[in-house]
Design a protein that fits this description.
Blueprint lengths: L2 H22 L3 H4 L2 H22 L8 H10 L5 H29 L1
Helix pairs in contact: 1-3, 3-4
Length: 108
């Protein structure tokens, strides 16, 4: 994991801590509703990313930990899965090209 991704995960953790503090903290009036609104928007985006990951689950062996990481960190947790999907896609392209060549040789 590169340093930028690690830093962004730390920022996301701080963001979620701020949202939780705004939700359960004793100084709710001072904090205001902005952290809750932003938290709701980010939560919806992360849930959509979880749905995208769910669609790719037929190609990947996913655990609950993978889904939880995407829920908390969003796209910063998706890098590994994107790389795995790309490798699977490249492998499938290679296999399909070989199959086409075999079919062409049989037809000739």
């Amino acid at each position: 994991m590169n340093i930028i991704n690690l830093a962004m995960r730390l920022i996301m953790l701080l963001f979620w801590c701020g949202v939780i503090y705004a939700l359960v903290g004793s100084d709710f009036q001072e904090v205001g509703s902005m952290p809750l609104i932003l938290g709701g928007v980010v939560l919806v985006m992360h849930l959509m990313q979880m749905l995208m990951l769910k669609q790719a689950s037929q190609y990947l062996e996913l655990t609950a930990k993978d889904y939880l990481a995407v829920l908390v960190f969003g796209s910063f947790a998706m890098n590994h899965h994107r790389a795995r999907l790309k490798a699977i896609s490249e492998e499938n392209k290679k296999i399909n090209a070989e199959n086409r060549q075999k079919r062409q040789q049989k037809n000739d």
